[in-house]
Amino acid sequence: MKRIGIIGGGQLGKMSAQAAKQMGFYVTVLDAAPQCPAAHIADAQIVGHLYEADKLRALAKVSDVLTYEIEHIDTQTLKSLHNEGHTIYPSPAVLEIIQDKLTQKQVLAKNGLPVPPFEAVDDLETLTHFPVVQKARKGGYDGKGVVVLKSPADLVNALQTPSMIEELIDFEKELAIIIARTPTGEMATYPIVEMVFDDKTNICDIVAAPAQIDEVIAEKARKIAQHAIESLEGVGVFGVEMFLTREGQVLINEIAPRPHNSGHYTIEACVTSQFEQLIRVISGLPLGLSDLLRPAAMLNLLGEPGYSGPPVIEGLHEALAIPGLSFHLYDKANTQPFRKMGHITLLDESLESAIAKIQEVKNILKIKAENTKISY
């Protein structure tokens, strides 16, 4: 059994470590926080930042294969380790492309994949067409690093960082799909899901599986996502986010080279979770089935606005009384407003029923903090 090293110890690292430990692997995580979520599951932790070359090398030394749960890491050191013979999935070359949103879009477009019209921008004052979406080329996550500029008056809110702009797409739905690909090119494709985003936070609120779309559209989206991962020569598990326009066009928004928030439902709702699939891929084991067992809806549990500190969960007893509900807490030491603290998944006979129960849970389950309400 291979020794697995996971770069990053957040919730994705924790759930990946859980899958690995269930299968009997030895897991070491690298994270700057000694009590990071994955530290509670892994066999060992190296405490250090993800841009510290010596810490990355220390992790490689005690691991047979490396993977990562976050894009914001030192690719130069990973490239050196790869050239020295260390096994890293997805490869540092793929990570380097995806880290830069402009480079990512350029590579996708060059390979004939449908993406929103985009361009590099050095001086936003020269913009003559609106509305557009400004995206930081590097470092964005969970709605950060993205600004909608509807008119020249919005330029005061523009990001002051190297960025790109895209046409603002009038989409009907935001879709996503998890794709797993092995070193030999075999792929496992999960169902197309719909993501519903919170307007205030721009963070994914609910994921519905399967997406309520025509099978012709679903097949088109599957082929586009598969082509994208093949074009990148990606090995691992990838989350492909897409727009479905009102004209029925499918456009790639972004690709994540790791397990993705839109795939959390797979833990309960699919034969093989996205996390187990990752462990299978990087350890050279056969792919598992990606079939959906029952319709499912997933809800992200965010820290309540106005609260910061050690988390306190309200309404858990009442929520767990709802049939088909599974609760996941990420073991983060402190909650903050709108921080991802956990998720729940609801399985039901129909997607409509699952979503109705999710809406019920939203009114019940709250993550606050003990005696630490923030005053504004």
TrEMBL record:
Record SUPFAM superfamilies: Glutathione synthetase ATP-binding domain-like (SSF56059), PreATP-grasp domain (SSF52440), Rudiment single hybrid motif (SSF51246)
Assigned protein family: Belongs to the PurK/PurT family.
Gene designation: purK
Catalytic activity: 5-amino-1-(5-phospho-beta-D-ribosyl)imidazole + hydrogencarbonate + ATP = 5-carboxyamino-1-(5-phospho-D-ribosyl)imidazole + ADP + phosphate + 2 H(+)
One of the protein's GO biological processes: 'de novo' IMP biosynthetic process
Domain spans labelled ATP-grasp: 105-283
Lineage: Bacteria, Pseudomonadati, Pseudomonadota, Gammaproteobacteria, Thiotrichales
Subunit text: Homodimer.
Lineage: superkingdom: Bacteria
Protein name: N5-carboxyaminoimidazole ribonucleotide synthase
Pathway: Purine metabolism; IMP biosynthesis via de novo pathway; 5-amino-1-(5-phospho-D-ribosyl)imidazole-4-carboxylate from 5-amino-1-(5-phospho-D-ribosyl)imidazole (N5-CAIR route): step 1/2
Signal peptide boundaries: none
Role description: Catalyzes the ATP-dependent conversion of 5-aminoimidazole ribonucleotide (AIR) and HCO(3)(-) to N5-carboxyaminoimidazole ribonucleotide (N5-CAIR). Catalyzes the ATP-dependent conversion of 5-aminoimidazole ribonucleotide (AIR) and HCO(3)- to N5-carboxyaminoimidazole ribonucleotide (N5-CAIR).
Gene Ontology molecular-function annotations: 5-(carboxyamino)imidazole ribonucleotide synthase activity; ATP binding; metal ion binding; phosphoribosylaminoimidazole carboxylase activity
EC number annotated for this UniProt entry: 6.3.4.18
A Gene Ontology cellular-component term: cytosol
